[in-house]
Specification:
Strand 17, helix 9 and strand 18 form a beta-alpha-beta unit. This protein is α/β, with parallel strands linked by helices and 412 residues long. The protein has helices at 12-15, 82-96, 140-144, 146-156, 225-234, 249-256, 269-282, 296-305, 327-343, 362-376, and strands spanning 3-6, 20-22, 26-30, 45-49, 55-61, 66-73, 110-115, 124-129, 132-137, 162-166, 182-187, 200-203, 206-209, 239-243, 261-266, 289-293, 310-315, 345-355, 380-387, 405-411. 44% of the residues are buried. The model has no long low-confidence stretch (mean pLDDT 94). It binds S-adenosyl-L-homocysteine. S-adenosyl-L-homocysteine binds next to helix 6. The site of S-adenosyl-L-homocysteine (SAH) has 18 residues, from helix 6.
């Protein structure tokens, strides 16, 4: 196996189970005998040692500033049954949380099975929708290992019969990648018509069309499950605006909660088509829902010029900062969009506002929202501080995994 030796004293973070080896910490790389070329191939398993040759762990080699993502600590090779053991451990956590039901359950059959570093599987996401698991690789190593991962899921997760692989938007492009980045790895049950365009997943009793082929991420944003349920509690008799609605998650909960009206807005027409399909499926008689494809900033400006206001607004934008160097601009963006929303809330109304940018921490986000409130001169109180749910756990040794934060504000 290819071996990586670290510079003196660079082993400390690995001994504290932080899973990344930065390229600057590496003293030298010794390539294995069958190796072609003069550097490790991206995605290959390598063994990492300290300067004094102490084994630190094995992991996937990557091109870039993170050179190795550790899979197993303190060993010299990947343990036999590694994938199965890790998938089993991830499954057991969800089982302990009460999130696992059979695929036919009419209350909930949707959960995240693997949340990257949070499940000690850096670079891997797996979401389960009834009988289908969707695997998403964020590293070439996970791409290379995708078939073993699929086998481990089929062996360990009883309700999963089908595996879809969806990594066309998430794989880094630093090296040529072999094999398909998207497609079915396994289909054992065609009854659910998962290969066709007719698949429904259930979350808290609401049905959502999952578009495996064209949908964003793995098809749905499971991370907002609990926060959507909170919107349902506050929606009664309210005029609700769900901004950045995607397939209408928050909208369906607001409708079930007895909202007077719900407006769903997203820039993507495909998303808006799915919102309409989801509303029609769950509330065939609803006459109080409107879905519009529009840019958020333009939409809010137009509504304001027409004097429109709302009792409850949800702002769940995409990550404004994808990298650390984009944080400043992102914070300006959060301030702008929140100021526009706060202005349009009726006295005594509520704003649910989120940031899913990993690079923007809780305090910085709160400061941006504070600046927005101050800018428009409204009296604002924080009612709830929201975050990602339990099936998106944060590895205590990898605090960077905390990405979703939200505030529920009471606006006087
Ligand atoms: N709240 C959703 C998830 C939102 S994801 C849920 O519960 O499922 C962010 C959404 O913002 C995406 O659907 C994306 O299409 C949309 N989006 C991105 N830029 C936008 C813009 N400028 N205006 C409106 N929507 C935008």
């Amino acid at each position: 196996m290819t071996t990586v030796y670290l510079k003196p004293h660079k082993e400390e973070s690995l001994k504290r189970f932080h899973p990344w080896v930065f390229s600057g910490a590496i003293a030298r790389v010794v390539l294995d005998a069958h190796h072609k070329g003069d550097a490790p191939e991206e995605g290959k398993i390598v063994a990492v040692y300290s300067a004094s040759k102490e084994p630190l762990g094995v992991g996937h080699w990557q091109i870039g500033s993170i050179a190795v993502r550790i899979l197993a600590f303190g060993v010299e090779e990947l343990p036999k049954d590694f994938w199965q053991e890790r998938i089993k451990a991830a499954y057991q956590v969800r089982e302990a949380l009460g999130l696992i039901h059979n695929a036919q359950c009419t209350i909930n059959n949707t959960f995240r099975l693997v949340h990257g570093e949070g499940d000690f599987l850096p670079g891997l996401i797996v979401d389960v929708y009834a009988e289908t698991a969707v695997i998403q690789a964020h590293s070439v190593g996970m791409h290379v290992s995708r078939k073993e991962i699929a086998e481990a899921i089929l062996a360990e997760v009883p309700q999963v019969k089908n595996i879809y692989y969806k990594s066309d938007d998430t794989l880094p492009f630093k090296a040529p990648i072999e094999g398909e980045k998207t497609g079915w790895i396994k289909v054992q049950n065609d009854d659910v018509q998962c290969t066709k365009d007719e698949f429904w997943s259930i979350e808290n009793g609401l049905q959502f069309r999952i578009d495996w082929l064209r949908g964003q991420k793995t098809g749905f944003f499971i991370d907002q499950r609990e926060n959507r349920a909170l919107v349902e509690r506050y929606a009664k008799d309210k005029d609700v605006l769900n901004m950045f609605c995607y397939t209408g998650g928050f909208s369906l909960y607001a409708l079930r909660g007895g909202a007077k009206s719900v407006d769903s807005v997203d820039v993507s027409q495909k998303a808006i088509d799915l919102v309409n399909i989801n509303v029609a499926k769950n509330f065939p008689k609803a006459a109080n829902h409107t879905a519009v494809a529009a840019d958020a900033f333009e939409y809010l400006s137009k509504q304001k010029s027409e004097g429109r206001t709302f009792d409850l607004i949800i702002l769940d934008p995409p990550a404004f900062a994808k990298h650390r160097d984009a944080v400043k601009n992102a914070l300006r963006g959060y301030q702008r969009i929140n100021a526009k929303a706060i202005e349009m809330i009726r006295p005594g109304g509520i704003l649910f506002t989120f940031s899913c940018s990993q690079a923007v921490d809780k305090e910085a986000f709160r400061l941006a929202v504070f600046s927005a409130a101050a800018q428009v001169g409204r009296k604002v109180r924080i009612l709830h501080q929201l975050h990602q749910p339990q099936d998106h756990p944060i590895n205590i040794y990898h605090p960077e995994g905390e990405y979703l934060k939200g505030l529920v504000l009471y606006v006087e």
